[in-house]
Amino acid sequence: MLKIAYSNTFPHLLPPGHRFPMEKYSLIPAQLLHEGSFTEANFFHPKPIDDELILKVHDKEYLEKLKTLSLSKREQRVTGFPLSAGLVQRELEITQGTVSGVDYALQYGASANVAGGTHHAYPGHGEGFCLLNDIAIASHYAIDNLRKKKILVIDLDVHQGNGTAFIFKGDDRVFTFSVHGAKNYPHHKEKSDLDIALDDNTDDNTYLKIVRENIPKLIQSQKPDLIFYLAGVDVLKTDKLGRLALTIDGCKTRDQIVFEEIAKQEIPVVFNMGGGYSERIATIVDAHANTFKVAREVFF
């Protein structure tokens, strides 16, 4: 069974102009249930994560600022959100969802998080709609608590996972792979173990060729015990922030390539939704829903 983390805590106090990136998170599970692709049994609602796990990655002072809502105005502006108790509560739940996803992936072969993939968060600050780096925290959980020796992060969000790359720089236990827009946010890129920076308007054929060539080689060379896959749909041509030119079918094929190779190698995978900012919310939800449906077809 594909177990999917879904935090139903929503920061209602956010001003209307800040709600757009958040709306999809309630619409995705609603669509999957409406279509009959999944049932309520597939979804679980995570509790807030323990501080002990967060502090494996994030600075104590930064965590305290989040919990006491004492980030400066500048620090809040960099995250993209005005800080609120609801927002922090939701972030704690999302992060636990990815950590719990590790256990479910080991049990069933694959698991998912409707949110997560908050790859811009650094140890001491948040950026780009990311407060806590859930994949980094979950990687430490797998290494420290479950004795996993090698983690592979496949980050196919259109924006480089700068926070994740920074956190695991020089750490041979985690290999970070990022395919992203060369001229896109973040303007200062960190160095992943392998970065592939794409030109503006990269199309399906070019993008999928890169994925087909690199994913099998990486899995074979790294021999990971666990994979995290960040399946952002901000690669779409319709995306307001993306600058690439993939179609919905191309995005779906990307997921098929990744999942089929992982399944062939029989490696547990946790996948997260990451970014998606197309003009029509229906486009975003459809593209994300495809990721879940492809995973179900491949693994279950």
Automatic annotation (TrEMBL):
Keyword Ribosomal protein in annotation: no
Domain annotation Histone deacetylase: ranges: 18-289
Gene3D superfamilies from the UniProt entry: Histone deacetylase domain
Any Gene Ontology biological process: epigenetic regulation of gene expression
Single GO molecular function: hydrolase activity
Annotated InterPro entries: HDAC_classIV (IPR044150), HDACs (IPR000286), His_deacetylse_dom (IPR023801), His_deacetylse_dom_sf (IPR037138), Ureohydrolase_dom_sf (IPR023696)
Pfam families hit by this protein: Hist_deacetyl
Keyword Repressor applies: no
Keyword set, alphabetical order: Hydrolase
PANTHER family: HISTONE DEACETYLASE 12, HISTONE DEACETYLASE HDAC1-RELATED
Protein family per UniProt: Belongs to the histone deacetylase family.
Name of the protein in its database record: Histone deacetylase
Species this protein is from: Cryomorpha ignava
